[in-house]
């Protein structure tokens, strides 16, 4: 490979937004000159330049959509953001645009970031340093900055907790009543976190809260909260803890087809092709559309719609073309039920009628629902315990949630523990606390929170004596408890529940269909098969993979090994290849029969040999 230094003898190629535009004698000097001109304001601050020394190329980027991050510039080992500028910024005499125009701060994209040496703060500046982070928290994204104490968690938890925060149910929009989203979750009583961050406040996320402050105790409960399982207090759930409403919108329109035909919203007649039965259309109005506040369950028709036939109508006996129609109604999904929340009628740009029906159903937390804190501590509800059986403190405080203490040290989510302690202290003081990333050392925080707890008569580390609700006896050890902001995630067991004893099969393979919406079965795959093979449960394998799947009886010719058929006129089994009658009936998988027919289409005759007896 040719090195960058040898290339630079012939000059460095310059690329603008990935397009070659020319060559310069010294790529490094050229990129430095571009940077100096940008800082002086001679060229746009949107321009980013990077010198790739390995290949001796200069890459200039000006295209839109780049993610860029602000940095403070270092010159001669000193920050250009002086104490005087800091004071002016605090007094709001200047803003960041002033610093950008004066060449104190500049925005760099991902490619130019490779060409700098950045320090997290002024104490870490060396001779090689070219930039300082505007804020230590800027190494984290927007979502993680909305969390609290992420610097005390393992870095592997950051992407996990960011995903959970996005999946949290809450108040996603204040005008949700006027929206017809495909699906939406709205929490009944969302709360703002007791411990929040600067980003949370700056983004004004208090208008869109997505969780609740749970009283959490770190303890086991008769083995019901092993690993990721969590215990909920039935009393808290009955009072509305984590309760939410689920909205789903069904929509349809009167499509127009070539030849002047079009769909019509109306109640189908019994003569219609694909008629679903009188009971299915019982809740429709005269216009074929269901009305608000009706209770519906799976299979109920929401919008009655007639469509023209897929093929041209046939001639009747009198030579008159009979106008036929087929039922193309919108029905409620399999496994769902709820109340009609609202119905909207409108028109498209082409003046075709459009209807949207929004279904509302109440989702009360149940066994199998998923919860997570802002630290990636996910958990699935394994038991909802009556309040009288839950552990309680001497003051009668009953936790909302019991979390297994083993889940914290193994995942190294110490920020979760810090929030538990901090929120408990903040609740006693009746105010919110700040948990902005990198804002204060953890040891200082623990001491500060401990002093508050002591002042109110609690243990400085948040431990309390709890009593067993079942026996009334005091636990031998003190139990760490406090308040944690938990998100109820969109993964709810009521939306994932899938049960089938029998149902539709695929036309090609005769195997059960896939997917919940198609009333499909749960896949019994290769790994499940291996588990049964390991147990020697051969009859159970046969039951799953043959009897309950695509078993078929076929006739096999003992003479030539080809598949035969049963001739009901002659009342005998026949072989179409050798025209013999020496056939045997066998049970095989239909998928295997399909394979034999498919290889026949390749002019290969597959023969099935039968054992004697």
Topology overview:
Layout lengths: L3 H6 L2 E5 L2 E6 L2 H14 L7 E5 L4 E5 L6 E8 L2 E2 L3 H8 L5 H6 L3 E5 H4 L4 E2 L11 E3 L8 H5 L10 H11 L15 E5 L7 E2 L1 H5 L9 E7 L10 E5 H5 L5 E10 L10 E2 L29 E3 L3 E3 L1 E3 L18 E2 L2 E2 L5 E11 L5 E11 L6 E4 L4 E8 L6 E2 L7 E3 L10 H16 L3 E2 L7 H14 L7 E2 L1 E2 L11 E10 L4 H4 L29 H10 L2 H10 L3 E7 L7 E3 L4 E3 L8 E7 H11 L13
Parallel strand pairs: 1-4, 8-9, 11-27, 12-26, 13-24
Antiparallel strand pairs: 1-2, 3-4, 5-6, 5-7, 5-9, 10-14, 12-30, 13-26, 14-22, 15-18, 16-21, 17-20, 18-19, 21-22, 23-24, 23-30, 25-29, 28-30, 31-34, 32-33
Helix pairs in contact: 10-11
Quick synopsis:
The protein is about 20% helix and about 25% strand.
Describe the model:
The chain is α+β, with helices and mostly antiparallel strands. The protein folds into 5 domains: 136 residues, Hypothetical Protein Ta0175, Chain: A, domain 2, CATH 3.90.1070; 216 residues, Dna-directed Rna Polymerase Ii 140kd Polypeptide, Chain: B, Domain 6 (Beta Barrel); 117 residues, Beta Barrel (OB fold (Dihydrolipoamide Acetyltransferase, E2P)); 50 residues, DCoH-like (Alpha-Beta Complex); 50 residues, DCoH-like. It contains 15 helices and 34 strands. The strands form 10 sheets. Strands 12-26-13-24-23-30 form a 6-stranded mixed β-barrel. Strands 5, 6, 7, 8 and 9 form a 5-stranded mixed beta sheet that branches. Helix 10 runs parallel beside helix 11. The chain is extended and about 105 Å long. The termini are far apart. The N terminus is likely disordered.
């Amino acid at each position: 490979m040719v090195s960058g230094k040898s290339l630079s003898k012939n000059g460095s190629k310059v690329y603008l937004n990935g397009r070659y535009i020319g060559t310069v004698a010294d790529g490094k000097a050229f990129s430095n000159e571009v940077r100096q001109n940008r800082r002086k304001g001679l060229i746009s601050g949107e321009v980013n330049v990077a010198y790739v020394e390995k290949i001796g190329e200069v890459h200039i980027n000006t295209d839109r959509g780049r993610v860029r991050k602000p940095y403070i510039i270092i010159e001669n080992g000193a920050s250009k953001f002086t104490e005087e500028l800091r004071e002016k910024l605090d007094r709001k005499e200047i803003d960041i645009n002033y610093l950008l125009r004066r060449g104190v701060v500049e925005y760099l994209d991902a490619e130019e970031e490779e060409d700098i040496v950045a320090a997290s703060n002024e104490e870490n500046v060396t001779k090689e340093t070219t930039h300082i982070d505007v804020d230590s928290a800027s190494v984290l994204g927007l979502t993680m900055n909305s969390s609290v104490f992420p610097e005390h968690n393992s870095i592997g938890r950051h992407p996990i907790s960011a995903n959970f925060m996005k999946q949290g149910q809450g108040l996603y929009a204040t005008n949700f009543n006027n929206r017809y989203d495909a699906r939406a979750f709205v929490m009944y009583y969302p709360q703002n976190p007791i411990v929040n961050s600067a980003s949370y406040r700056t983004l004004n996320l208090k208008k869109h809260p997505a969780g609740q402050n749970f009283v959490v105790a770190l303890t086991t409960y008769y083995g019901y909260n092993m690993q990721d399982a969590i215990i909920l207090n039935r009393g808290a759930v009955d009072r509305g803890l984590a309760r939410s409403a689920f909205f789903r919108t069904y929509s349809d329109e009167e499509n127009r087809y070539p030849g002047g035909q079009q769909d019509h919203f109306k109640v189908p007649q019994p003569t219609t092709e694909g008629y679903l039965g009188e009971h299915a259309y019982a809740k429709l109005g005269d216009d074929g559309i269901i009305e608000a506040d009706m209770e519906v369950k799976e299979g109920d028709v929401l919008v009655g719609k007639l469509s023209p036939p897929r093929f041209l109508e046939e001639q009747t006996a009198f030579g008159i073309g009979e106008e036929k129609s087929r039922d193309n109604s919108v029905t409620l999904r399999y496994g769902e039920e709820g109340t009609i929340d609202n119905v909207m009628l409108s028109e498209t740009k082409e003046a075709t009628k459009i209807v949207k029906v929004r279904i509302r159903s109440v989702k009360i937390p149940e066994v199998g629902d998923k919860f997570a804190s802002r630290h990636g501590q996910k958990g699935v509800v394994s038991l909802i315990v009556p309040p009288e059986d839950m552990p309680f403190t001497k003051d009668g405080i009953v936790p909302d949630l019991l979390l297994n203490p083993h889940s914290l040290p193994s995942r190294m989510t110490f920020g979760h523990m810090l929030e538990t302690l901090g929120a408990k202290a903040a609740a006693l003081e009746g105010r919110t606390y700040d948990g902005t990333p990198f804002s204060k050392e953890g040891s200082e925080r623990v001491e500060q929170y401990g002093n508050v707890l002591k002042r109110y008569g609690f243990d400085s580390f948040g431990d309390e004596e709890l009593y067993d609700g079942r026996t009334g006896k005091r636990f031998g050890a003190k139990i760490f408890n406090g308040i944690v902001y938990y998100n109820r995630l969109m993964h709810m067991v009521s939306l994932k529940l899938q049960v089938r004893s029998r149902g539709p099969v695929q036309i090609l393979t005769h195997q059960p269909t896939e997917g919940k919406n198609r009333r499909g079965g749960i896949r019994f795959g290769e790994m499940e098969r291996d588990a049964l093979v390991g147990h020697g449960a051969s009859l159970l394998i046969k039951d799953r993979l043959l009897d309950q799947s695509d078993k078929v009886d076929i006739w096999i010719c003992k003479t030539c090994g080809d598949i035969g058929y049963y001739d009901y006129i002659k009342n005998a089994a026949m072989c179409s290849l050798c025209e013999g009658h020496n056939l045997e009936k066998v049970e095989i998988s239909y998928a295997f029969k399909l394979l034999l027919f498919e290889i026949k289409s390749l002019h290969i005759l597959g023969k099935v040999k039968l054992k004697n007896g």
